[in-house]
Design a protein that fits this description.
Low-confidence stretches: 122-134, 529-579
Organism: Spironucleus salmonicida
InterPro entries: EGF (IPR000742), Furin_repeat (IPR006212), Giardia_VSA (IPR052798), Growth_fac_rcpt_cys_sf (IPR009030)
Strand order of the largest sheet: 21-22-23
Keywords: Membrane, Transmembrane, Transmembrane helix
Helix content: under 10%
Protein name: Cysteine-rich membrane protein 2
Shape: elongated
């Protein structure tokens, strides 16, 4: 039997793929993650690392969250209150029993159409009756949000255009409107109805005060001087014209989300206004023309003759017998062959036509959105690298855009330096430091040294000790502590008689470069225009900074740093330090 681990509410030692059922400090056995888990329990996607409210894992990341939470960047975040399933923190898909989704805000609210209903629901849910009765604004009988009213209590209250309930006025006179129980003169920018004789829906009255001069917003003004119903696209509710939910509706009843008539070029279809068409050219690419433009279904990207007869599929699906079948769960695009994934999902890499998890990967490029050269994705941000593939390392901006030592960026790819180079620049054959037991040559190559056998006045050629000054000499002559000598001074072997190619001869020392050569540490190499093409600006700057640090370290006597610096190791070799 597979070991699942043991746990408590204070001990987190479950194995990956299991959760802890404990709700106390008592140690219990971990159980496999399953559909029976409830809010507050957590699946372990890695050993001893639970992800709060996770129900299923894919590799070391959460792939499915428990009810009342949603998945974002590998974590399970809480849905809005009273919401069972949601897409984000602002919009709910399904609500907890007893709650309804507000069509305008997308959140779940407990609505009641009367105080009696509020009392009943309050008893069922164990809520105080006064709290439940206040779900709607005061004096409101029916509401669809907690801040506006659809129908006010007719016993003493009227509704305003802004959806509020105000007190009625007693014996209000023509030319006045009621402002929360107080009569005030009308103007043309009212939020409540102006009294103009028996006329309805007036914003202002004629001079006699018996007919409308101007209607309330979106009301129609007829030839007899009356405000008669709403303009197209609006529905009458509590003396207000409210926009239909569908912008293509011409007429809609009080519910607003059902069309009974449509604007030009649209027709009613199942309570909605659908675009009419005569040819497919009238519709979008994802629709067919069947008197109206009908949108393809069944994950079709395009369809023909019927909405479920697919011609092409959405990403993540493949066409099979005019239907769209899902690609494997780890594949984002398998166009042409379900068994040959073209694009893997985040956190996977393609190899041998299938997608493999990036967990533990070091060599293959993992799919982490737009990030490049990732071996794994960051556990907290799928769009960043967790680790880089072999030969790459993270730069200061956390991208895998620079090479590790022993590799050089060539055409945006890290290529391995020549095998005797510890580091290289300009090209993979040009070393800037050498591996152990090798010495830098004037050709910027690393030659096998014979350092232990050298005496003053000698150098290494083809791993053999020879006299200095020969035509084939490519490494410096040993002259006590003097560096970069071609030959030692015949009267004082602590000084140079001449320099290796590229060095200035000053006071019998060879410590600086001649024109046309560039310094890397205390080594001089020929300048090469290819530096600008083989190294990025950042890489060139890095070499310059590194050189300055080395020179500063030498000047300051920072011997411990010199021992760690690869460039200074080469200098020590060139100086034939006796250690």
């Amino acid at each position: 039997m597979t070991e699942t681990g043991n746990c408590s509410n204070k001990v987190f030692t479950c194995k990956a793929g299991n959760f802890c059922p404990a709700n106390s400090s008592t140690i219990v056995k971990c159980q496999p993650c399953s559909e029976t888990m409830v809010y507050g329990q957590s699946c372990y996607c890695q050993d001893s690392k639970p992800i709060d409210n996770c129900q299923e894992c894919a590799g070391n990341r959460c792939s499915k969250c428990l009810s009342q939470t949603f998945l974002q960047n590998g974590k399970c975040l809480d849905c809005p209150p009273y919401c069972d399933t949601c897409a984000d923190t602002n919009s709910c898909i399904t609500c907890t029993e007893g709650y309804e989704k507000n069509p305008y805000t997308g959140i779940c609210e407990l609505f009641c159409k009367s105080e009696d209903e509020c009392l009943r629901i309050g008893e069922e849910f164990g809520e105080p009756a006064t709290s439940m009765a206040q779900t709607c604004i005061p004096n409101c009988l029916v509401c669809f949000t907690t801040t506006t009213c659809e129908f006010c209590n007719p016993s003493g209250f009227i509704s305003t255009l802004s959806g509020q309930c105000t007190s009625k006025c007693v014996n209000i006179q023509n030319g006045n409107y009621c402002d929360n129980g107080t009569a005030k003169p009308c103007d043309e920018n009212l939020t409540s109805e102006c009294k103009c004789g028996r006329a309805d829906f007036c914003a202002s009255c004629n001079q006699a005060g018996t007919q409308c001069k101007k209607c309330l917003p979106h009301m129609k003004f007829n030839k007899t001087g009356e405000c008669d119903g709403c303009e197209d696209g609006f529905a009458l509710e509590s003396s207000q014209c409210i926009p239909c939910t569908d912008e293509n509706c011409k007429t809609c009843p009080a519910k607003k989300n059902i069309c009974t008539g449509c604007k030009n070029n649209f027709m009613v279809q199942n309570g909605k206004c659908e675009k009419q068409c005569t040819t497919i050219a009238n519709c979008t690419a994802s629709q067919i023309c069947d008197k109206i433009c009908k949108t393809c279904t069944g994950n079709c990207a395009t369809c023909k003759d019927a909405v479920d007869t697919c011609m092409t599929c959405k990403s993540g699906f493949i066409l099979e017998n005019q239907k769209c079948a899902a690609c494997p769960s780890d594949c984002a695009n398998c166009d042409g062959d379900k068994n040959d994934c073209k694009i893997c999902k985040e956190g996977f890499f393609a190899k041998d036509k299938i997608c493999n998890t990036c967990d533990g990967n070091t060599t293959e490029k993992c799919k982490c959105r737009n990030a490049v050269n990732c071996a794994t994705c960051d556990s907290s941000d799928i769009g960043k690298c967790g680790n880089c593939i072999t030969s790459y390392k993270k730069a200061s901006d956390e991208t895998c855009s620079t090479c590790v030592d022993g590799y050089l960026m060539v055409g945006m790819v890290c290529k391995k330096c020549e095998q005797t180079c510890a580091t290289c620049s300009q090209s993979i054959q040009k070393c800037t430091s050498c591996i152990d037991s090798h010495t830098m040559s004037i050709n910027q190559t690393c030659e096998k040294d014979c350092m232990d056998a050298l005496t003053d006045g000698n150098t290494c050629t083809d791993e053999k000790t020879v006299d200095c000054g020969g035509n084939d000499q490519i490494t410096a002559c040993k002259c006590k502590d003097a560096a970069n000598c071609l030959k030692c001074d015949s009267s004082d072997n602590k000084k140079c008689e001449s320099c290796m190619t590229g060095y200035k001869f000053v006071n019998q020392q060879c410590d600086s470069c001649i024109d046309g050569y560039t310094a890397v540490g205390k080594l001089c190499f020929p300048q090469d225009d290819t530096l600008s093409t083989n190294l990025s600006g950042g890489a060139v700057a890095g070499i310059v900074i590194a050189v300055l640090i080395v020179v500063g370290g030498v000047a300051g006597g920072a011997f411990w740093y010199m021992k760690k610096s690869k460039v200074n190791q080469e200098i020590e070799k060139q100086n034939f330090s006796r250690q």
